[in-house]
User: Which sequence fits this backbone?
């Protein structure tokens, strides 16, 4: 029997980084770290990833005991890096900060509450090794969501699609990216981050891994309605100018209505003995046009506000502390 020398898997295997943004997650940190470490060693044992793989926890300015917990974990485990931002910058910025610290061959982003099970990472790594540079985690169902969240999410994907924005349906921020994809993403200079849209922009070969989402481990959702709406609007304004075009359309429609009204007024005046009676016929169009104009100004103002934020070119985050890894050389902010 011919014997084939097995390749030394651990020498060839790529390294993996798992980036976990955390905001007031003291209730889940310990369990999350334990589960992710176990997932890493399983992946290492199966020869999929190198032993040099690491978990990057990013403390997004938490007000609870998240940072002391992370710091302790990073000091006790070689496989854990704890990164602290100077203050709360929001999920997308925290995730971006984490990505900017990684040096590994593949990077997985995952939420601290482990609603997106780490058991799916193996399939993502396999897809990456098969040549896909971006692997989206896609939820098969939304049973763990409230009726309201399901409906609004569905509506949002529809609206985005009709605006021509290319989003992966039911994919949030659980994904794997190759080093090249991460480095390319980090070149995007925008301040208003909507990462799930930007990753689609990259255009590298991508595929999806399907999974069911678990309920939150503990603690509560950091995405109340206000934040959800703000992220949704960021997605629209960062990827589409359709609302601005809609203003032009609205102008055309109301112009058409006005023209119809003029024809009608002239018709009544010329071909009957009466004229169009006064108050209501003046006030209704005046109020209508007035409110449409304010609405349009509001939409233009929203884009103007985004431009204002973008031209200031302020750093997206500042690092306060990094424990467990050599800090990245160069400017501390991204
Ligand atoms: N998060 C963050 N900064 C924030 C808000 C949230 O880093 O300002 C993190 C949070 O700790 C979690 C992830 O973003 O790891 C997603 O938040 P959450 O699970 O509460 O959102 P949901 O699953 O309810 O949409
Ligand atoms: Mg969650």
Assistant:
């Amino acid at each position: 029997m011919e014997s084939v020398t097995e390749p030394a898997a651990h020498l060839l295997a790529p390294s993996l980084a798992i980036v976990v943004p955390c905001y007031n997650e003291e209730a889940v940190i310990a369990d999350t770290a334990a589960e992710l470490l176990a997932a890493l060693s399983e992946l290492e044992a199966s020869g999929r990833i190198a032993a040099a793989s690491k978990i990057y926890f990013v403390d997004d300015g938490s007000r609870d005991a998240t940072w002391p917990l992370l710091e302790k974990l990073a000091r006790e485990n070689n496989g854990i890096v704890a990164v602290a931002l100077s203050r709360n910058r929001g999920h997308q910025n925290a995730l971006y900060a984490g990505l900017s610290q990684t040096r590994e061959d593949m990077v997985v982003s995952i939420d601290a509450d482990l609603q997106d099970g780490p058991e799916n990472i193996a399939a993502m790594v396999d897809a990456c090794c098969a040549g896909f540079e971006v692997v989206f985690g896609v939820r098969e169902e939304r049973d763990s969501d409230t009726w309201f969240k399901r409906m609004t999410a569905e509506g949002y994907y529809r609206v985005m699609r009709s605006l021509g924005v290319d989003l992966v349906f039911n994919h949030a921020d659980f994904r794997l990216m190759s080093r090249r994809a991460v480095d390319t993403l980090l070149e995007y200079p925008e301040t208003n981050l909507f990462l799930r849209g930007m990753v689609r922009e990259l255009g590298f070969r991508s595929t999806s891994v399907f999974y069911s989402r678990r309920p939150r481990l503990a603690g509560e959702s950091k995405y109340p309605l206000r934040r959800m709406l703000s992220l949704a609007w960021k997605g629209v304004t960062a990827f589409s100018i359709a609302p601005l075009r809609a203003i032009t359309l609205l102008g055309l429609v109301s112009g058409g209505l006005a023209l119809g009204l003029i024809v009608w007024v002239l018709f009544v005046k010329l071909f009957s003995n009466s004229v169009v009676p006064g108050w209501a016929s003046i006030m209704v169009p005046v109020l209508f046009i007035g409110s449409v104009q304010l609405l349009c100004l509001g939409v233009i103002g929203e884009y103007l506000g985004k431009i204002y934020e973008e031209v200031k070119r302020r750093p997206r985050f500042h690092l306060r502390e990094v424990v467990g890894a050599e800090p990245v050389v160069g400017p501390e902010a991204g």
About this structure: The CA atoms of residues 247 and 253 lie 10 Å apart. The mean pLDDT is 90.
